[in-house]
Amino acid sequence: MKVSNKDVNVRALINQQSKSKQFFKAMEKLIPLVLKGLTAISILTTGLIIFTLLAETLEFFKQVPFLDFFTGTELKPLSQHPEFGILPLIIGTITSSFIAMIVAAPIGLMSAIFLSEYASDRLRKMLKPVLEVLAGIPTIVYGFFAFTFVTPLLKGMIPGLETTNILSPGIVMGIMIIPMIASLSEDAMHSVPQSMREGALALGATKLEVTLKVIIPAALSGIISSFVLAISRAIGETMIVTIASGSSKQLTFDITQSMQTMTAYIVEVTSGDAPAGSTIYYSLYAVALTLFAFTLLMNLFARYISRRFREEY
Fold it and tell me: How far is residue 114 from each of residues 107, 121, 129, 186, 278, measured CA to CA in Å?
């Protein structure tokens, strides 16, 4: 029986499709394994980081009492009689983050309200990427901006302001986290159904009343989460406070004075002459673990708020 060229082409096409199906089946089995492997790597990395911090921190607490570390008001790691009270670093970190939120919260929220409720679609698509450009600026640039521009500007308005102070980096950190608050809050407000806006307007509410009494309460979980995540970002900021806040380890609540944050202390120790195995070397890990605990608690709180006040439509 003679086989035509048409039959040969059909058989070749069937064989090719069969091979393609086998290839895709193999890929379907391989992809979940690859994804599981990547997930395992991220979990393993996090576990190793925590293990390293805990192991070195335990060595530190063998030399320094736990209560003295968290309640001590003196931090003198290089003196003849070293003291390792972390309270000045905690106060400096909280103060800088608080100043940042005073700057970022109202500006970020107002920007989100404008983009979500008042700007046209065309204007929103133009302004939102421009606003988010701020998030892409390297933090070391923000640090030099705080030190060389903001601090001299503030010294002309505030008598007694030191060259290195906590006010200037706090303000600049606030500018840095504005895009985070604005973007996340705008996304939360934009996700509120249009029918809720139309219903409120149909009942006689003004645009401002709809925004304040309908949209913001409906998007409250997303807005609060953006605030908490922004605080976490401010707490973990390094280069701005390292350059502009100074290295004073004295416990003070005066924002015109130099303060040191936990991240700045870590940079100072790692760039100094602390020998491995010394108490000051181990203090680096104790401070890092404290900072890790701060940011972890803030992120857990953000997740709780998001779930607690989430509105589903």
Answer: 11, 11, 14, 9, 54
- In sequence order, the β-bridge partners of residue 75 are 84
pLDDT at 309: 67
Q: Kindly list the distances between the CA atom of residue 74 and the CA atoms of 61, 178, 284, in Å, as whole numbers in the listed order.
A: 17, 34, 16
**What span, in angstroms and rounded, lies between the C-alpha atoms of 306 and 226?**
10
Q: How confident is the model at residue 313 (pLDDT cuts 50, 70, 90)?
A: low
Nearest to 196 by CA among 223, 215, 219, 178: 215
CA distance 222 to 158: 37
The model carries a pTM of 0.82
Distance CA 173, CA 178 (A): 9
Closest CA to 285 of 89, 47, 60: 60
Which class does domain 75-308 fall in?
mainly alpha
The rounded distance, in Å, linking the Cα atoms of 280 and 270 is: 10
Report the DSSP pairing between strands 75-76 and 83-84: antiparallel
